[in-house]
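Holo model, iron/sulfur cluster. Inputs:
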Amino acid sequence: MKKEAIKFGRRDMIRSMGATMALGALCPQRLWGASSKYQLTDIRVPMAPDNPAVLFDAAKCVQCGQCKTVCERMMSVSGFYDLAKSGDVPVCVNCGQCTSVCEGLALVNRPEWQAVKAAKAAGKTVVVSVSPSVRVGLAEEFGAAPGTFCEGEVVAALRALGADYVLDTCFGADLTIMEEAAELVRRVTTADRPLPQFTSCCPAWVKFCETWYPEMLPNVSSAKSPIGMQGPTIKTYFAQRKGLDPAKIFNVALTPCTAKKFEIRRPEMNDSGFRDMDAVITTRELADWMRAEGVDYAALKPSKFDSLMGEASGAGIIFGNTGGVMEAALRTAYWMVNGKNPPAELLNYGPVRGMGSKKKRAYVKQATLELKPGLPVTVLVVHGLAHVREVIERIKAGKLKATFIEVMACEGGCIGGGGQPRAKTAPYVSRAMRQARIDALYADDARGTLRFSHENPEIQALYRDFYGKPLSAKAEKMLHTQYVSRAKDLG
Ligand code: SF4
Ligand code: SF4
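Output:
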């Protein structure tokens, strides 16, 4: 009998028994080898108790097997290492996709909203930055249709919960584009670093590369993610302009992403002289926090972001979509090379948009365009780490060539992140839900008048008054980073 049939047979059995208890109580325990402390690893992912992104409660596990399926098939993490070789330490890229499919809610986002509340109570200045995908997710937690745009409600909810400032991480995305596009242009025109250049804004992808493909790290853009840039810029530039003591700022990223909980704790993320970002809460966690504090979503009056780091272009908004970072970067790379904005085609760049076909290879979107006459670039967009593994293997075998590759670990991009709302029934985050959120972010870009990162007046002011220009010494120090090989984690 096929593995799939066994799995669904087991789930059906649980349902027919009406079981709400952990099936672990009914089945003999199976161990990985003789000495592993993790149980039932033929059915579920082993989860380390100190995983910064995901919490596991064995008592709630109904052995649906979905965590293992998603980790293996979407992420190519489970099944690609051996506990017996890794010292019985689970390898995890912290994407949180297992929490999006777990039937018993045994695997959940590790919550941090209580830490934000405690910081506020301790007199800290709480600054929250909101990622693009949250504004097409939160409303679903309160019954709205997938993709309902709720930016103003998100800001209002954060103010109701006590945030002192609410900023837009799409501003950080615009900043990332300035640095990453400048880096791309430099690589293409001077060959100072190898091509293809990979995007670096997805911490699950970066950790995946560090673990399985450290030889590709020179190809990964050194630009930090939007949150990685937002953090130190708040504790320096923003603090100075607003007259705030950076030691008293508690920086919070509100994201669709559990892997950001790992990213902000990387030792190098302290370029402000402090820990750059202090906490990460996901869209789901915000909803939990609102319920716990009695914040009524329906009664919220939409509010606006605060100034200095609260304005964003449509290019920053579409960062949440697969293909969005690529399109945003191409818009600004074209401007950097030609000194003028690109043709309208790059304001709705079809070849890199959408989920792609369900056929495996079609998750890789590809296009070739001329940044200027005689300067062609081939771009690839890939989402779902299993597809990324395939792309890298093909590149290494010389079967695939590209100039610039956008990678997002989660299918559909961050709109499908491991901290985004789940539907009440399986598959919990459907393809249609992902597409609706994608459409909502593109619609917001299309209805705006500011669609280029380099035209964002707050970004222009930041460079004029603080960083100088993209890739300046100060920008390199604060906005760029380096990576480490984690190959030894595999044993
Ligand atoms: S967080 Fe991602 S990589 Fe880690 S166990 Fe869950 S699905 Fe696998
Ligand atoms: S695709 Fe987005 S949400 Fe998913 S792990 Fe990467 S950064 Fe996080």
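Strands lie at 54-56, 107-109, 125-130, 165-168, 197-198, 249-255, 279-282, 364-372, 375-383, 404-408. Residues 1-33 have pLDDT under 50 and may be disordered.
Archived with the compound record.
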